[in-house]
Write a structure and sequence with these properties.
The complex is a heterodimer of chains A (60) and B (666). Chain A is rod-shaped and about 55 Å long. Chain A is an alpha+beta fold. In chain A, strands 1-2 form a two-stranded antiparallel ribbon. In chain A, 32% of the residues lie in helices and 13% in strands. In chain A, 2% of the residues are buried. Chain A has three helices and two strands; from the N terminus they run βαβαα. Chain A has helices at residues 8-13, 30-38, 51-54; strands at 2-5, 24-27. By secondary structure, chain B is of the alpha+beta class. The chains are: A alpha+beta (60), B alpha+beta (666). Chain A binds chain B through residues 5, 7-8, 22, 46-47, 49-52, 54-55, and chain B through 298, 336, 338, 387-392, 431, 433-434, 437-438, 441-442, 445, 447.
């Protein structure tokens, strides 16, 4: 999961004062969490529209 | 990037094993993984190529991590002159080449490299070629600085000119590739022509061969975007271009050159000659002040002055008065105080920072109606047996071209391929591809997708959130299945007035004609009207190839949500019974059932509660005629209707239908 404090240069670019502002950003791929939980090996399965894959998760 | 563990151990002798090195790097510096054999794979961020693309930089990180001393090789500096005698250098583009250093060497004896050198190269994934070329690569592995050796006697007038390429200039690279140089590409040329693509690759003409006795070694800094652009334009990527493209420090060339000259003496018996440096005076160093109180405020934990000193000194920072620190020249990534905070914190240990729950204002997020709409759609359609899919937002050039030019499809400026050359104007194209792909495994496929469709409008692009439902079955009719699901869905959104009109729907027609609709069966689309507004289309076609019946409905989901209403008011249940009558009619197939039902409503506006089509029949011998049975439900809120009253109402209806549609009552 990528995360970190917002760099001063980013605040400069949007004209916030970096000495007054602090920022924290983080992002986690929901599809990647699902891959860990359900042991899915390839992220492309989510976007391939293959019903043999999709039907396996009808119970959710 | 691959690093040799044995070489790292030479610089950090106390290292116990590869695992310790990888763990230390991963914990404090960069992700490091086992690359097999003696190699470690390190994931370098682009802004750390300047100091860590060489083993020395990684060794420095390890020494700071483990709190140990470094054992670095030193080299006698090269004495440079403004105008060396055995060769000349002219830097015509100082902006793109902020520093150029070079040294001539004589008495070179080309041969294979010693085993210790060849081994390190192999561990890092490089092939040993000859002692001179190998030293160039070895010093790059050690310091990060890319180097290049020219055969001095093969350079016209022994000149090196750093200049933009002129129109029509070409070069044959050392691996025999003939490259046309785009005008303006930075090259290293001799008095006649380009001998190297600066920062990228050397040319064959002046390459070091078995016959070479005199060389000139180049160590320079090139401006990152220039090298990046050149590398893309000529489609050549090398260890050198990858480093320069990310930005190398101008302080490095002289150090690397000194090391190379020393190794060439040891390994190729080369004697150092004249040298050149375009910038012998180092610029003033960058200085940053470390404020312990600000550090604690930013990071959340205090740090002792001693710890700060130990960490920064081991990273090569020089302490000055007043808590100020001189930044090592190779650390082009250190700009401000926040960068110093990161340096200290990552070695002090992010894992050691205390955890505290965040203090935030409890403000509920703004409502996003599209989220609620999407959830409702998924709930209803999944409940009805449809599967949700995600398809690409792009369509192929072929699909885009098939669209009505009046529709203004958004095309990509740099399409990755013909398959992804435009933004989808409708979801149906790719949903159909999904149906097609699943046809191999299923005889009946019901799917839906919620996603954005795009259209050009003026200079910009409009995005619409669409829902597309599609059903396909072998030899089985699917239109009424989709229509029924659609009606149930619209009902779920609180839409009470649903109608289907024969209005042109270009999106629907485009799709169905490309879905292989059989021309003989025709393409049928109807416009979906919710509360009187057209929101999309529904259609059906028989697939020409597979004998499938495909039905599709697609509409604007945002428009639907805006029409949706959760306002329901209870209607009291009546204590008076309804009267039901059936009527069978024979009429032309050109007549629309909806209009017949509407005509009945008009004929009996107040007491007719409901009209339904309960049967239809078409005898094969009838041409253009059909028989339908309508069921009428009559109801009065204040009394029980008598049979006589209902008979009269039925007569009224029958008369209207006979008159308006030439219907024959059966």
């Amino acid at each position: 999961m990528g995360a970190g404090m917002v760099h001063r240069a980013v605040f400069d670019a949007v004209r916030y004062n970096p000495d007054e502002m602090q920022g924290f950003a983080f992002g986690v791929g929901l599809d990647r969490l699902a891959m860990i939980k359900y042991e899915i090996p390839d992220i492309r399965l989510f976007y391939g529209a293959d019903l043999r894959f999709i039907h396996q998760f009808r119970s959710l | 990037m691959k690093f040799s563990y044995p070489l790292l151990k030479k610089f950090v002798p106390v290292l116990k094993d590869k695992q310790q090195a990888m763990d230390a790097l991963t914990l404090h510096s960069f992700e490091a993984e086992d690359a097999g054999g003696a190699a470690i794979e390190v994931k370098l961020p682009p802004n750390r190529y300047a100091d860590c693309s060489g083993h020395v930089g990684i060794a420095r990180e390890l020494s700071a991590s483990l709190g140990v001393l470094l054992k670095l090789p030193s080299a006698r500096p090269v004495q440079s002159a403004r105008a060396p005698r055995s060769f000349s250098v002219k830097v015509e583009d100082a902006d793109r080449c902020p520093r150029y250093t070079a040294c001539a060497l004589d008495g070179v004896r080309i041969g294979p490299s010693p085993a210790w050198l060849a081994t390190v190269l192999a561990e890092c994934g490089l092939r040993p070629i000859s002692n001179v070329v190998d030293v160039m690569n070895y010093v790059m592995l050690e310091t990060g600085q890319p180097l290049h050796a020219f055969d001095l006697d093969r350079l016209e007038k022994h000149a090196l000119v750093v200049r933009p390429a002129r129109a029509g200039e070409r070069i044959t690279t050392i691996d025999g590739q003939d490259v046309e140089l785009p005008v303006g590409t930075l090259v290293i040329a001799d008095a006649k022509r380009p001998q190297a693509i600066a920062g990228v690759k050397g040319g064959k003409h002046a390459e070091v061969t078995a016959a070479t006795t005199r060389i000139v070694v180049e160590a320079a800094t090139f401006e990152p975007s220039a090298i990046y652009r050149t590398s893309r334009a000529v489609n050549i990527s090398t260890d050198a271009s990858q480093r320069f493209a990310r930005g190398m420090p101008t302080s490095l060339p002289s150090q690397a050159l000194a090391r190379a000259v020393e190794l060439l003496a040891e390994v190729a018996h080369a004697m150092r000659g004249d040298a050149f440096d375009s910038r012998p005076q180092a610029p003033a160093p960058h200085v940053v002040r470390f404020d312990a109180k600000r550090y604690e405020r930013l990071i959340g934990a205090p740090v002792s002055g001693k710890r700060v000193r130990d960490i920064l000194v081991s990273l090569g920072f020089t302490p000055m008065k007043d808590d100020r620190w001189q930044v090592p020249r190779e650390r082009v990534d250190i700009g401000s105080f926040a960068d110093l905070v990161e340096e200290v914190a990552r070695f002090a240990g992010y894992g050691k920072l205390p955890s505290a729950a965040p203090h935030v204002a409890l403000k509920p997020p703004a409502d996003d109606t599209s989220v609620a709409a999407k959830m409702l759609v998924r709930q209803i359609l999944a409940g009805l047996g449809f599967d949700e899919v995600y398809t690409h937002s792009f369509v192929s050039e072929q699909a885009a071209a098939a669209f009505d030019p009046a529709f203004a499809v958004v095309r990509l400026e740099n399409p990755p391929s013909d398959l992804f050359s435009a933004l989808r104007p409708s979801l149906a194209t790719n949903v159909f591809n999904a149906i097609d792909a699943n046809a191999r495994f299923f005889d009946n496929v019901n799917i839906f997708e919620v996603g954005k469709a795009f259209q050009r409008s003026g200079q910009g692009v409009t995005e619409r959130l669409m829902l597309c439902m599609m059903s396909a079955a072998k030899k089985q009719e699917t239109f009424f299945y989709v229509k029924g699901a659609l009606e149930r869905l619209l009902e779920g959104f609180g839409i009470r007035n649903i109608a289907f009109a024969t209005k042109p729907a270009s999106l629907g027609t485009e799709f169905l004609s490309r879905a292989g609709a059989n021309a003989a069966d025709g393409i049928h689309t109807l416009a979906i009207e919710a509360e009187g507004k057209t929101i999309g289309y529904i259609g059906a076609a028989r697939h020409a190839v597979r004998d499938w019946c495909i039905s599709v409905a697609e509409f604007d989901l945002e428009q639907l949500s805006s029409l949706a209403s959760a306002n329901v008011a209870f209607t009291p249940l009546s204590s008076f019974p309804s009267m039901v009558r059936d009527l069978s009619l024979r009429l032309s197939t050109a007549v629309k059932i909806g209009e017949v039902m509407r005509a009945a409503q008009v004929a009996v506006p107040d007491l007719l509660e409901d009209v339904d089509l309960v049967d239809e029949y078409a005898d094969p011998s009838w041409k253009g005629e059909q028989s339908i049975t309508l069921r009428f439900v009559f109801h009065a809120p204040d009394r029980t209707l008598t049979a006589v009253e209902v008979d009269r109402l039925m007569d009224r209806i029958a008369a209207a239908l006979k008159r308006d549609f030439q219907a024959a009552i059966r």
